[in-house]
Write a structure and sequence with these properties.
Elements (H helix, E strand, L loop, with lengths): L6 H5 L4 H21 L6 H8 L3 H7 L3 H12 L11 H19 L1 H14 L1 H22 L5 H22 L5 H14 L6
Helix pairs in contact: 2-3, 2-5, 3-4, 5-8, 6-8, 6-9, 6-10, 7-8, 8-9, 9-10
Length: about 200
């Protein structure tokens, strides 16, 4: 299945064929990582999974780490909740989107591999940090409207950790009621009046 160029690529004037190749190869890299593990993410394996010649993959990503960096950057471009202006609803919506990403995109497996490899492969630390920062950004921006410093950090970690802990350690994503209760508790703890 071929993917279409991103809005960013269309605006930047990237040739649609090149953009499609990039999208296909990067999606295949994540699929190979999730399905077959770290050692399977090689240019030949990814090229085969994407349906392209290995020379094409080597031409764009001569080093494996570059392929992984771009793959995780593309993987991090998952859809987020469209903000409504209601802080509680937006936090619940963003956490629900995060939960959906775990279930539909097997984010749990990718994050587990990323966390494990960050301790053994120094170049992966930068990739991990960028991936986490991009993923947490919407929650931090929303909470930043009512909090700062250590309280903001604690609240963001609590809410993002809710989904991570439930999926990675308990094997089941939190349901809507749990997400709503967590958001309410955090907002009350920050002194935000709930309607």
């Amino acid at each position: 299945m071929r993917s279409s160029p991103s809005d960013h690529e269309r605006r930047a004037g990237v040739d649609p064929r090149v953009a499609r190749t990039h999208n296909d190869v990067l999606a295949a890299a994540i699929a190979v990582l999730i399905d077959d593990g770290w050692d399977a993410v090689t240019q030949p394996n990814v090229a085969r999974a994407a349906g392209y010649a290995k020379g094409t993959v080597y031409a764009h990503w001569p080093e494996r780490i570059d392929l992984l960096r771009d793959a995780f950057a593309r993987y991090g471009e998952m859809p987020h909740h469209v903000r409504t202006g209601d802080l509680r609803a937006d936090l619940v919506g963003e956490l629900t989107s995060f939960r959906t990403a775990f279930v539909e995109n097997r984010l749990d497996r990718a994050l587990a591999i990323l966390a494990e490899r960050s301790s053994a492969v120094p170049e992966m630390v930068e990739i991990r940090d960028a991936f986490v920062e991009d993923g947490e950004r919407p929650i931090r921006e929303l909470l930043g409207t009512i909090s700062a410093d250590a309280k903001l950090e604690a609240a963001a970690l609590m809410l993002c950790g809710l989904v991570l802990d439930a999926v990675l350690l308990h094997g089941t994503p939190p349901d809507d009621a749990v997400i709503e209760a967590a958001v309410d508790q955090v907002l009350r703890g920050l002194g935000h009046a709930l309607h």
